[in-house]
């Protein structure tokens, strides 16, 4: 399948774009970016140098993905989701000289397979968001998010666990150190560590 790039978008010839990916209005894709197959990038999406994005990723309008961020297959980011990459951001050095690329250290961020990030959420650099996790709209994620976790707030806190289909999981049978949580929609069983289940607010 052909790649679709809107004529208003600026896509570097040094970026790799997978088959079937659509890049809509006013996007900017920097050199070294790698975007997988069948992705959909909405209006105004920014992809920085050397960012790696897997297959079947959907980034809605005005998402910013900065250098040091990796999005695995099937990640969803709602409108205006913003990633960061500098733990100590400054425009200048202590002597007021302008910072260069040699004056700071990139802090990496990983969003794993199938995770969903709600509109206007901010992801602090250095965290890992687990597989099929869900981040509520407007949240500020400052720590790692477990697989299947539902987090929201500022700072984002654990409020439950969700199925891959998106439904909130219900308490199930306890098997040793695991909770066999059940999805009320598709009836899947998801094993959740009991110690994490007990932290639900």
Automatic annotation (TrEMBL):
PANTHER family given in the database record: ACETYLTRANSFERASE (PTHR43300), ACYL-[ACYL-CARRIER-PROTEIN]--UDP-N-ACETYLGLUCOSAMINE O-ACYLTRANSFERASE (PTHR43300:SF4)
Entry keyword set: Repeat, Transferase
Superkingdom assignment: Bacteria
UniProt keyword annotation of Oxidoreductase present: no
Species of origin: Leptolinea tardivitalis
Record-level Gene Ontology MF annotations: transferase activity
Protein's UniProt name: N-acetyltransferase
């Amino acid at each position: 399948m052909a790649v679709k790039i809107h004529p208003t978008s600026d896509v570097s010839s040094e970026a790799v774009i997978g088959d079937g990916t659509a890049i809509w209005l006013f996007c900017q894709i920097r050199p070294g970016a790698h975007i997988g197959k069948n992705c959909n990038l909405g209006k105004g999406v920014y992809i920085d140098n050397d960012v790696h994005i897997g297959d079947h990723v959907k980034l809605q309008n005005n998402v910013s993905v900065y250098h040091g961020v990796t999005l695995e297959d099937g990640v969803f980011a709602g409108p205006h989701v913003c990633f960061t990459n500098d733990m100590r951001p400054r425009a200048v050095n202590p002597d007021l000289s302008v910072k260069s690329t040699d004056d700071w250290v990139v802090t990496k961020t990983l969003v794993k397979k199938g995770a969903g990030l709600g509109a206007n959420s901010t992801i602090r650099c250095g965290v890992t968001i687990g597989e099929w996790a869900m981040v509520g709209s407007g949240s500020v994620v400052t720590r790692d998010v477990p697989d299947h976790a539902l987090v929201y707030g500022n700072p984002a806190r654990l409020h439950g666990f969700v199925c891959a289909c998106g439904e909130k999981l219900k308490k199930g049978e306890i098997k040793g150190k695991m909770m066999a949580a059940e999805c009320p929609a598709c009836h899947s069983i998801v094993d959740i560590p009991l110690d994490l289940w007990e932290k639900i607010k």
